[in-house]
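Structure in, sequence out. Go:
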């Protein structure tokens, strides 16, 4: 048996057939007359007007046959609709295509078949007018013409039905569009107006009237030019000219209107041109959104940004100054250390050449030798000093007794050499002035006599240098401890060698305990892993900056960090400075603005922009995972009456309750969004049996809504119409197409009596 092939435009053909709304409908007298007339004219026992559906052929009119439908795969009519004209089978029993067909071999004993295709307005075959006989026969040219005429009469009925359904659909769409326009015009959250070609306000909604502070009659007496800020008027008029010249189809600009009280109202104005074919007039449609608050926020953000930039610039300069001062202090310390090295070398040379004060004493402490350096340092000549007690020459009066006691202890060998042989004390010159000296004692024996060698060195400069280092360190600590940023120095092993007081404020403890600590011991693991990447670059001599999060006693902070390498004298890095600034306030503001841009202010649900992005991602995941998905389009039944009877504030409560009920009735992995007004969507992902899952979820939503009986103190009865569009795994469909399918299904649900579910 040869099964019929599908028509080359099968999907369009089925859509045209179903659009006529004739399948599974009661018999029609005028079609029954055609089949009865055909039975008499052609003297055949069976005449059918057959409509070829997806998997069946259904008989709109029939003579001589009790059944209402037969499977499509055994249907001769399914072969007939593939032909450009009539389809004849004179003897099916001897036709190899149909000899074993159940209609031929079975009880019907079909032998003769003649089918004339019936077409839609677009010329797509929807079925046939067919003749069936259990006896073979031929078909004359006159028979063919008669069958074609009768089929044309039947076809005219179906085309009239198709035209009528199209007209009804158009009327419904026009009525819906008009209602939608009026609802939008009256209740839109933005201003809407019709404006004449001269600029006069022909019609304005209440939102625009409230926005600008004029009542509607007053607005209609004005032109938009009168209340437009002069600085914005020319740009508006130039765009209007482009619109009238056909260069653009619409335009949007930001401009300023004067409020009735004289204040400035910033708006986003969108204008398009409409042409009324009835009276051949032109006018403008203006949509006005109040962006004054946004402009104020932008102004505040700009001021904040400028302030932040100024603060960052100031902090950067301060940090640069701190770094420069730090470098200066390090350089100063290096210089001082270098001076100390030179001083040590100088002391050695001085000792070798007796340039320091060298005094040789006997066991009683009297001077035996006094070099020229001692003369220069203390002011006493060799003649003045010889044989005199050294204490009278170099020790201030108040220190002589303790000094003599110490000298005696040294001489008799009871003093601790590690402590007492190197002494710093205040010495005295001949003129009575005092200065610090360093005393080194050594003993020798000359000709059996014990001799004490005293080396005295003026250390006034060294004491001054040490004081300067201490002062520099104190100054550096004072500067860094009072800067509102983290400042530290980390060596090549990533261990802290310096940290300012901000570390104590952020992490606790004290800066002294931080010295020698590895960075990984202070930072949390995530922050350390992120910082370590940039530390590697800094240790290669590259200055780097990056943003990071730190876990501190103040909570999690967003910081901007700069790593500044420190170089050795040979040019190789030997660690780096860390400069980290708290930018948490700026990050929080950026995150807040991003959230408000993608969520509905009333319900907190994702808005249309976010919904389209999620829908696109969900379709991509469906393709990758091999699982189906679905989109539910929900419209709250009777919401206009609720708003009209109980007010918009109660209507807002209803929308919030509706949104909360939807969220509580689906999985966490499903996405609930508010498109606009009382229209909501639910994206269902990861579905194995898509249609069954959609039915289950949709009826669960209807049941959940039915449990809501009161909002506030008022009784309510929430009902919704749900349209669903399903997507099998791998099925190619765009987000826009899927949304349109779900929207159309929702309208079918409303047409079925509301509080219903319609799929695809």
């Amino acid at each position: 048996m040869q099964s019929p092939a599908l028509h080359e435009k099968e999907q369009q053909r089925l859509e045209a057939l179903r659009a006529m709304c004739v399948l599974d409908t009661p018999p029609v007298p005028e079609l029954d007359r055609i089949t009865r007339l055909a039975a008499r004219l052609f003297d055949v026992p069976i005449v059918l007007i057959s409509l070829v559906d997806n998997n069946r052929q259904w008989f709109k009119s029939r003579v001589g046959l009790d059944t209402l439908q037969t499977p499509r795969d055994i249907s001769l009519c399914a072969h007939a609709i593939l032909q450009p004209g009539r389809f004849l089978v004179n003897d099916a029993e001897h036709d190899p295509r149909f000899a074993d067909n159940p209609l031929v071999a079975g009880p019907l004993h079909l032998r003769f078949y003649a089918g004339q295709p019936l077409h839609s307005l677009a010329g797509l075959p929807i079925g046939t007018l067919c003749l069936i006989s259990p006896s073979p026969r031929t078909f004359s040219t006159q028979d063919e013409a008669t069958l074609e005429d009768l089929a044309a009469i039947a076809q005219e009925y179906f085309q009239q039905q198709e035209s009528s359904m199209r007209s009804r659909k158009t009327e419904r769409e026009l009525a819906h569009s008009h209602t939608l326009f009026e609802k939008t015009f009256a209740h839109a959250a933005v201003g809407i107006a019709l404006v004449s070609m001269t600029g006069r306000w022909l019609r304005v909604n209440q939102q625009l009237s409230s926005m600008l502070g004029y009542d509607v009659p007053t607005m209609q007496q004005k032109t938009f030019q009168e209340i437009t800020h002069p600085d914005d008027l020319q740009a508006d008029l130039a765009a209007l000219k482009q619109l009238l010249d056909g260069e653009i189809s619409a335009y949007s600009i930001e401009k300023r209107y004067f409020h009735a009280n004289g204040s400035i109202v910033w708006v986003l104005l969108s204008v398009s041109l409409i042409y009324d074919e009835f009276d051949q007039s032109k006018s403008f449609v203006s949509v006005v959104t109040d962006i004054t608050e946004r402009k104020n926020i932008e102004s505040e953000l700009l001021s904040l940004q400028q302030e932040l930039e100024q603060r960052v610039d100031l902090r950067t300069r301060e940090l640069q100054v701190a770094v420069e001062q730090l470098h200066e202090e390090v350089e100063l310390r290096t210089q001082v250390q270098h001076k100390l090295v030179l001083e040590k070398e100088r002391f050695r040379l001085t000792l070798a050449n007796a340039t320091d004060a060298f005094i040789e004493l006997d066991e009683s402490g009297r001077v035996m030798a006094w070099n020229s350096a001692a003369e220069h340092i203390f002011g006493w000549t060799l003649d003045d000093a010889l044989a005199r007690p050294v204490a009278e020459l170099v020790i201030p009066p108040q220190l002589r007794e303790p000094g003599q006691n110490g000298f005696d202890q040294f001489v008799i060998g009871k003093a601790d050499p590690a402590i007492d042989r190197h002494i710093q004390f205040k010495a005295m010159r001949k003129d009575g002035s005092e200065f610090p000296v360093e005393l080194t004692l050594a003993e020798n024996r000359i000709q059996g006599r014990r001799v004490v060698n005293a080396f005295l060195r003026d250390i006034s400069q060294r004491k001054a240098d040490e004081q300067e280092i201490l002062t520099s360190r104190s100054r550096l600590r004072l500067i860094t401890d009072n800067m509102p940023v983290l400042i530290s120095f980390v060596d090549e092993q990533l261990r802290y060698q310096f940290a300012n007081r901000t570390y104590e404020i952020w992490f606790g403890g004290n800066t002294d305990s931080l010295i020698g600590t590895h960075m990984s011991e202070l930072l949390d693991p995530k922050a350390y892993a992120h910082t370590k990447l940039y530390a590697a670059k800094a240790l290669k001599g590259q200055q780097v900056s990056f943003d990071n999060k730190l876990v501190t006693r103040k909570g999690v902070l967003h910081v901007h960090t700069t790593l500044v390498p420190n170089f050795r004298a040979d040019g190789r890095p030997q660690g780096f400075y860390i400069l980290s600034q708290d930018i948490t306030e700026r990050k929080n503001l950026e995150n807040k603005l991003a959230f408000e841009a993608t969520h509905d202010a009333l319900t907190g649900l994702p808005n249309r922009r976010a919904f389209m992005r999620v829908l696109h991602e969900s379709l991509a995941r469906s393709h990758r995972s091999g699982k189906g998905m679905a989109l539910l389009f929900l419209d709250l039944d009777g919401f206009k009456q609720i708003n009209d009877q109980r007010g918009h504030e109660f209507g807002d409560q209803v929308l919030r309750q509706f949104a909360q009920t939807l969220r509580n009735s689906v999985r966490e992995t499903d996405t609930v969004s508010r498109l606009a007004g009382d229209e909501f969507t639910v994206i269902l992902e990861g579905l194995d049996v898509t249609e069954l899952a959609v039915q289950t979820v949709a009826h669960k939503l209807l049941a959940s809504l039915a449990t809501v009986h009161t909002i506030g103190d008022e009784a309510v009865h929430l009902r919704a119409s749900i349209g669903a569009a399903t997507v099998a795994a791998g099925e190619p469909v765009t987000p826009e197409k899927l949304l349109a399918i779900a929207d159309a299904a929702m309208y079918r649900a409303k047409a079925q009596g509301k509080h219903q579910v319609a799929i695809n």
